[in-house]
Amino acid sequence: MKKISSSSTFMRKKLLPVLWFGFLALFVGRAMLTGIAQKNPMLLVVPVMMAVFGFFLMKRLLWNLVDEVYDGGDFLLIKNRGEEERVALSDIMNVSVSTYPNPSRITLRLVSPGKFGKEITFAPAAGSVGNLFKKNQVAEDLILRVDQARAKRAG
């Protein structure tokens, strides 16, 4: 089976939040210990706003990504938080790709909800770097193969 999801998903989902919130906690902690926060409490507003903004941004763009996706030919093997699900290509209703948020994302809408819900979103493996306007090859291949699998099922 070929892995079609990004190898940096773990770093984005786990390491980035630890670094983001850890830095903010260190900043606030240092401000509290040195007494700067008592003298100027407004200094804490910016880190709190950054924490709230970071939380909602990561919730929307990172934490809903599954950990790994493998292409098994006529099915995809989805792995997330130690659990696995096998999804037949014919059970996928729609494949959509968004390239503008970083990381780019592929969302699979399923005919019926599975273990991970009605939609499965993952960051595809990096293709050719440098051309922002080039179509994502992983998504293009999935769109074509899902359409073929649905046509077989219907016919």
CATH class of the largest domain: Mainly Beta
Share of helical residues: 40-55%
Rg (C-alpha, Å): 20 Å
Main pleated-sheet profile: 4 strands, antiparallel
Structure description:
- The protein is of the alpha+beta class and 155 residues long.
- It has 2 domains: 7-61; 68-154, FACT complex subunit Spt16p/Cdc68p (PH-domain like).
- Helices cover 42% and strands 26% of the residues.
- It has 4 helices and 7 strands.
- It has helices spanning 9-34, 36-39, 45-61, 137-154; strands at 2-3, 68-71, 75-80, 83-88, 92-98, 105-114, 117-122.
- Strands 1-2-3-4 form a 4-stranded antiparallel sheet, with no helix packed on it. Strands 5-6-7 form a 3-stranded antiparallel sheet.
- β2 (68-71) and β3 (75-80) form a beta hairpin.
- The longest helix has 26 residues, at 9-34.
- The protein is elongated.
- The relative contact order is 0.16.
- The mean pLDDT is 90.
